[in-house]
Design goal:
Low-confidence stretches: none
Oligomer: single chain
Mean pLDDT: 95
Distance between the termini: 37 Å
Number of helices: 14
Largest sheet: 7 strands, mixed
Number of strands: 11
Helix content: 25-40%
Order of helices and strands: EHEHEHHHEEHEHHHEHEEHEEHHH
Radius of gyration: 19 Å
Length: about 325
């Protein structure tokens, strides 16, 4: 099997988890990797006091390190600005790797995973001519998934009306289990509710055929950038003026599906360990420190040479 991919990783804090993500990926799938585009946010996590210098140095033969000039946080991205200003567009998550990618295939990953087998080869083998492959949807957040109406394998089949979508969002609404989309979504969903607002190609580990995707994605095409967070149409807050954003890649996935692109579900959890509470860990000092300590233990077990290099043992 002779093919190469580039890797795009978006990094916000999580120094030990980031190192574990990259080292485990390189150990299991390194023979397929040409370049790793390490996009490090201009700010870091509130509870993080360490830097990524050691992993950047240790993997310098593979890594292209980029720190954007802008910090978007969890605010919605401005597409007019993205179309006009390269520096702003390149601050959108994963966008630097997207635009710099030299290989036909781009792998996007989170910085809080541990790869256990050759996940790149497994994704490549299953791609089957689709534009992308990975875990489809955050069905656990979606009332359609919660009620057995839809899932990652059936997302192309469940196409409700907007009225029905709002009905299931408002029934038994629990804001700890669903996003506040029950307050109403934007006109694009009123015109066509499919794909649903939790449908996406999950960015924590996805393989994308850039020959198919690049030409239809900003800056070359009309789809928003893969990592863009866009307003959903729902608002919350004391003055009802805080937009509830669609998650990363939701709008891109929607744009691409409406252009005729296809995506295949692959259960990446067979090939890696991933705690899907990424944002929760950033909101809690205890959860953050615990996740970092767990990653450090795994680093010492799997990658003692790196740990000696980094002064961790």
């Amino acid at each position: 099997m002779n093919f190469k991919v580039d890797v795009a990783i978006n990094v916000f804090g999580k120094v030990h988890q980031t190192a574990l993500s990259l080292l485990s990926l390189l150990e299991c799938s390194g023979k397929h990797i040409s370049k790793i585009y390490f996009q490090e946010e201009a700010c870091t996590a509130e509870y993080e006091f360490k830097k990524h210098d050691k992993i950047l140095e240790y993997c310098s033969h593979k890594i292209n390190h980029y720190v954007p000039k802008h910090w978007n946080g969890i605010d919605p991205n401005d597409m007019e600005r993205a179309a006009s200003f390269d520096d702003y567009r390149l601050s959108i998550r994963y966008q630097y790797g997207w635009e710099k990618c030299q290989q036909r295939y781009l792998l996007t990953i989170h910085n809080d995973i541990e790869v256990t087998t050759d996940i790149i080869a497994n994704l490549y083998d299953e791609l089957d001519g689709n534009t992308g492959i990975g875990e489809i949807g955050q069905c656990w957040w979606c009332p359609a998934g919660q009620n057995g109406l839809c899932d990652s394998e059936r997302y192309t089949e469940f196409k409700p009306s907007y009225q029905y979508l709002m009905k299931i969002y408002n029934k038994d609404m629990d804001y700890t289990q669903r996003r506040a989309y029950n307050f109403g979504l934007s006109d694009q969903y009123k015109k066509n509710a499919w794909p649903l607002p939790e449908c996406r190609l999950n960015e924590w580990c996805a393989l994308i055929d850039m020959d198919k995707a690049r030409k239809d994605t900003m800056p070359m095409g009309s789809a928003v950038p893969f990592g863009a967070r866009m307003p959903s149409g729902a608002c919350i807050g004391e003055n009802w003026d805080r937009p509830v954003c669609l998650d990363v890649a939701v709008q891109w996935f929607r744009d691409m599906l409406h252009m005729g692109h296809t995506f295949k579900h692959y259960d990446v959890n067979k090939d890696m360990i991933h705690d899907k509470r990424g944002s929760v860990k950033l909101d809690s000092a205890e959860a953050y420190v615990m996740a970092e300590q767990k990653a450090l233990i795994r680093l010492k077990e799997r990658f003692p040479d790196y740990c000696k290099f980094a002064g961790l043992i």
